[in-house]
Amino acid sequence: FTLDRASGVRMIAYDMTGREVAKLGSGEYGPGYHQIRFDAAGLASGLLIVQLEVEGAQIARQRVILIK
């Protein structure tokens, strides 16, 4: 993800029932391009919703297929 200014960020993965299955990252991030590594070792294959929340901005959601 890319930020145009420093912001508080939370990235969380949910299963299709809306249950939180992983916290991928949270904290203050500076402006620029950032990557968050997702270790899905403890999760089963299936469809996930990854949600990115940026403080003072919008919330973005993306469907992700986890194949093991």
How is the topology of this model organized?
Elements: E1 2-3, E2 7-14, E3 20-29, E4 32-33, E5 46-54, E6 59-66
Antiparallel strand pairs: 1-4, 2-3, 2-5, 5-6
Overall description:
This protein has 68 residues and is mainly beta. It is 0% helix and 57% strand. The protein has strands spanning 2-3, 7-14, 20-29, 32-33, 46-54, 59-66. It has a 4-stranded antiparallel sheet, with no helix packed on it. A two-stranded antiparallel sheet has the order 1-4. The model has no long low-confidence stretch (mean pLDDT 92).
Q: How would you classify the helix and strand content by structural class?
A: mainly beta
Global Rg: 13 Å
Q: What is the terminal separation in angstroms? A: 24 Å
Shape: elongated
Provide the β-strand percentage band.
Answer: over 45%
Oligomerization status of the protein chains:
single chain
Helix content: under 10%
What topology, given as strand order, has the largest sheet?
A: 3-2-5-6
Order of H and E elements: EEEEEE
Q: Regions with pLDDT < 50 over 5+ consecutive residues?
A: none
* Major β-sheet annotation: 4 strands, antiparallel
Arithmetic mean of pLDDT? 92
Query: What is the number of helices?
Result: 0
> Would you count the extended β strands for me?
6
